[in-house]
Specification:
This protein has 554 residues and is of the alpha/beta class. It is built from 20 helices and 18 strands. Strands 4-5-13-10-11-12 form a six-stranded mixed beta sheet, sandwiched between helices. A five-stranded parallel beta sheet has the order 15-14-16-17-18, sandwiched between helices. The longest helix is centred in the middle third of the chain and has 22 residues. The radius of gyration is 27 Å and the shape is elongated. The N and C termini lie far apart (67 Å). The model has no long low-confidence stretch (mean pLDDT 90).
Amino acid sequence: MSFALKCLDCGQEAPYSPSSITCPSCNSQWREVEYDYPALANTLPDLLRDRPFDLWRYRELLPVRNPNLSLSLGEGGSPLIQAVNLGMMLGVPNLFIKDERQGPTNSFKDRQAAVTVAALKEAGITEMVAASTGNVAIAYSAYAARAGIKLWAFVTSLVPAVKMREIALYGSQVIKVTASYDQAKQLAAEFAHQRGLYLDMGARTVTSIEAMKTIAYEISEQLAARLEVPAEGKPPRWRSPDWYVQAISGGMGPLGVYKGFDELRRMGFIDRIPSIAPIQASGCAPMVTSWKKGLEKAEPVLVPHTLIETLATGDPGRAYMLLRKQVDETHGAFESVTDEEAFRAMHVLAKMEGVSAEPAAGVAFAGLFKLVRAGTIKPTDVVVINCTGHTMPAEQSILGDNWSRNVVLPSKEEQKPEDGLLAALSSVAPDRFPRVAIVDDSPEARRLIRRILQSQGDFQIHEAVDGRSGLELIRKELPDLVILDLMMPEMDGFAVLDVMKTHPDTAEIPVIVASAKELTPEEKNRLSGQIQALMQKGDFLNDEFLDEVRSLLH
């Protein structure tokens, strides 16, 4: 195996050792691994052919000379899931979720821990220090336990107790720091220095960046299998997306993923690097704010104001400068979202795709929604979003009120003849939910509207496949709201409206018209005074649609 460390400041090359953290020439802590890319371009395809789909299939591109596979917990090889429903809702059909929840400790940090601990074990290092907002300490704890390495985990007091207990369960020593994450990192660094221990330095840790780049390798193989047409009966090998989206705290993930795509390009396997979109929580978004101001160096956030503690890095340091260069080079974009937007995205993701993710991943999806709405991400783009993890139960602040309904069965002595299971169950659901009728000849449009409504509350939903059956449904059910398509065969939406307005029982039912095309002035004039709202089908994700539904129902 041929690889060496190259200093990002002076260009000096040196052998890699985990215990050597600075350049021997200029003392810079910012270095990266270089490999023999021309040689690997020739040999790697054959090497990969019969290997399992996991992180270590790319071992020639990792800085571990003799990987000890007995330390593996099954890291890497996470699935790439096509988000059919979200893609339909956003108008971006080629939307894929890189599901890093399925790692050994349920986050993408498993890659970082697996490669770093393997390198430490190979170097004979038996004790290490790491500062964390939760996920990385859990991952390091699991792998350190397997490798017989002592971990000192410095975590802020904002880290949920359930995460702290899991860190301790693996045998790691938890040091709870009542201060910011940046201060916890400083304390961990001083502790490691005093004791002469190995310190995880985030984006400056070579093995961390190298581990994250395997996400890019996997995505490129998985997308090729999904989207490329095989030539001469042979499966395609590699394909990069148009966009890669990920929530960030210190920026390590996208830095590593960029390097992975860059290496694939240098080996001739792909022809371009995707646009990079790092997303931050607006309560702690030093990179986003600095990028939008055009600053070369990040303005630190001294006091983070976000409930999403895993993204609370106030001072990203040089990582911002590196990531800013990559974002600009790839014509990407930084974006930020509020905690509330992230929590809402979690609901939508779970209810539309069956994917329950932690708040940090919710930030990425909320950022995706923003970029699509702004037109930054186009309908024809192939987009991969990293669902970075799911490492804890959903909290009350995310679920809000009324997320459960209680049933209390009376004792036999207290029961009246009419009491029992049916009577108890009557308390679970009210007599009736708001009733919505969807009249649209497109099954995809009906399913999309149904899923959006279901993701936001309790509705009794009725559907009709054309205007005639829709009119019958409306007359029979007398819904509280009608969502009506205009362009349907035989009896179109205009005709349905005309008939509704002639009958007293249906004349006052509010109607939202959903149109796939821009209406002419004559068509808009025909609707005037007959409907409550006119929406383009591509705007269903907007808050305006749901706000309109809520206002009409209440």
